[in-house]
Each structure stands twice: as structure tokens, then as C-alpha cells.
Amino acid sequence: MTDQMISADVIGEHNKSNEAALGSDYAALGENLSRRGIDIEAITKKVSEFFVAVPSWGVGTGGTRFARFPGQGEPRGIFDKLEDCSVINELTRATPTVSLHIPWDKTDPKDLKAKGNSLGLGFDAMNSNTFSDAPGQAHSYKYGSLSHTDAATRAQAVEHNIECIEIGNAIGSKALTVWIGDGSNFPGQANFTRQFERYLSSMADIYKALPDDWRLFSEHKMYEPAFYSTVVQDWGSNLLIAQTLGDKAFCLVDLGHHAPNTNIEMIVARLIQFKKLGGFHFNDSKYGDDDLDAGSIDPYRLFLVFNELVDAENRGVKGFHPAHMIDQSHNVTDPIESLISSANEIRRAYAQALIVDRKALDGYQQDNDALMATDTLKRAYRTDVEPILAEARRRAGGAIDPIAAYRKSGYRKKVAGERPAVVGGSGGIV
Ligand SMILES: [Mn+2]
Description:
Helix content: 40-55%
Number of domains: 1
CATH class: Alpha Beta
Radius of gyration: 22 Å
Bound molecules: manganese (II) ion
Strand order of the largest sheet: 4-5-7-9-10-11
Largest sheet: 6 strands, parallel
Shape: globular
Strand content: 5-15%
């Protein structure tokens, strides 16, 4: 029996008053899909088996480098964060795992595991942090970490990553995500080649410490905090890293870490083709690394990314099991509501991609019928699959409308009374 943060009665009552409408919407959509030769039950089953990990840092209010405006009842530490993550999973039944960030979430692994078990939560990829200095550390990362010119600083950063693997191993995680802020702010500040050689050598040391059944994800990011050059700036450098390190090394694609208008779905296709797609950090952006909610700016792009994933799934690409994780910063919304919404948007893109008529698409591509090929994608994208998402949640014990049920539950008000308000507006997480 797991601890429920949102009582089953609240969810039950909410569902009861929405069940009839959902039943008729689901039947109507089922009929529509059936005319297109699609079995709605098969899609609902696939959607209900699709999960995405919530980031522990995502349940706190984020901020920018200018300011942070704290919200009500913010989590005080990792155990509060896990409770908030549990709320998201109880209502959506789409987020049964949490991705931790060390040292932010550092505590006795036995306690982490026990808390996770009590809430029915598991742990996805571990995230190391060598982009800021932890209190009391011997060497500063001001001028870099894994690629630093100083060997002792590099060794300290390697050691931190190995510690993340050890903590992760104790709590059932199977992957380490490495993102570094290393780079340079001025032309001439760093030697591109030597800096990348030092990075590769440090990563090789981390790779050696990886258990056999683990994967190592490197995450590229075009700019920030380094504004002139970044060591792992794009998928090209990222692919070189994964290929150099070995079979357990993969590329992680954070949707926000690209220049505006970059064809991310094509990057995804290339990485799948060469067996190096490790997983995702889902979010959305308008201008840069905005860390906005998944699907909030360009839901069609999210769909096109999933179109590639479903294509690979259908082709039975060997060893294809990308990690799905959210990486967002919530500045003006209740983080729990944003994460509920994002988990739904990610499942929506998956469901829409599942109903693409792939046989027809293949034919149109073969015949060079560009208009009908693109219309085939649009037809799937235009389909309102909400009844499938809601039904998948309902059947798994979640809420038909999870944000409405969350608001009804009064959870935020309850924790605001228990957790003292955070004072001051420090710089936020990035
Ligand atoms: Mn990320």
C-alpha cells in the first residue's frame, strides 16, 4: 500500500462527475478512428504504457538570472519534492519516476529509496552538477569542470559524477546525465581542441565507473552560461562523444538547447539511425533555452519529434528505448500544474503520432506526393485525442481532468500551511 498525497475519494468523486461525458467522447472518437482502420483500444493501451520522468528540480519555482519569485508551499527538500512528484503521478498516472539532481537532492540513499517506495515512485537518470560550486568544495568550476585546464579540478568533477553513479546505483537508477556549462566567453579564451580533449578524457574516466547495465547520457547545449563557445554545443559534438566513449554512451536531446527553428526532429532521426539516441529533456522554447512547458509554444514540433519515435518503434529498431524526461523551469505557474500539463502534452504528441497512417505516408513518400504526405501527418495531428488520454488516466486510477481534480483537492493550500514561505528572491535555477 503506497501513501496517497491526493485522496482516492477526491479523484473518485471528480471522475464520477465527468465519466458520462468522457464515455460519449471516447465512443465518438473510437467510431471516427475505426472508419480510418484504427483500433482505439490499441492506442489507449500504448498511451497508458508510455511514461515520462519528472525532474525533482521542476517542482520548485524556477526563475531567471534576474530574479526568482517564490510560490506558496514550495518544497523544502527532496522529501517534499518527492511528495509533489507523487501528486503529479497520482493524477496523471504518467510519471512514475523522478530524475534527481546531485548535490541538490543529496541525502542518504536508503532514505531516498524508502521514500520513493512509500509513494510508489522509482528513479530515472541521475543528473550531476559541475556547473556551480557546492559549499566547501576544494576547486571552483568558474572556468570549467570536466574540461578545466587544471587537472585537480577535472579530477574533482569526475569524482562527483562517480558519486552520482553510486547514489543512483543504490536507489535503482540506470543512467547518468552529464551536462556541463564549460566553454568560453571570449574568442581566444580557450583552445577548442585541447579543451575538448580534456573533456573526452574526463568523460572516459566516468564511463569506466559505469555499471554494465547503465547508460551515460551527454547533453548538448548551444550557449549559456558560456556565451561565445560551449564545449558540447550541438548534436555533432555530442555524437562524437557518444561514439568515442563506447556502447553505453548516448546523446540526450533537450528540446530547448537549440537555435530557434532548428530541425530537431531530423536530429532525432539521425541519432536513431546511428543508435545513439539516449533520451530527451522535454520542454518548449520561443527564443532560446526558455525552459517553457512542453507543447506550450510549438506543439506541432513536439508531434514531429514523436512521429520519428513512433516510426522507429514500428520499424523495431534494435536497442531503441529512449529515456523520456521533462526539464522545465516554472516561473509564473504552480509547478505541479505545469508538470501535469506537460506530461499530458507529451502523451498527446505520442498518441497523435500513433494514429499517423504510416502505410499511406510511405506510399506518398515513394510517389513524391509532397502535399498528401504532409496532409497525412496533419490529419493525425488535427485529431483531438484527449478522450484517449483521459480514458488512459481514468483506467489507471488517475483523474479525467487532472488539473481540475488537483485544484479541487486543495493540496497547494495544505502544503502552504505546512511549509514555511521562502523569503527573498535569489537567482533561479537554469
Ligand atoms: Mn536539460
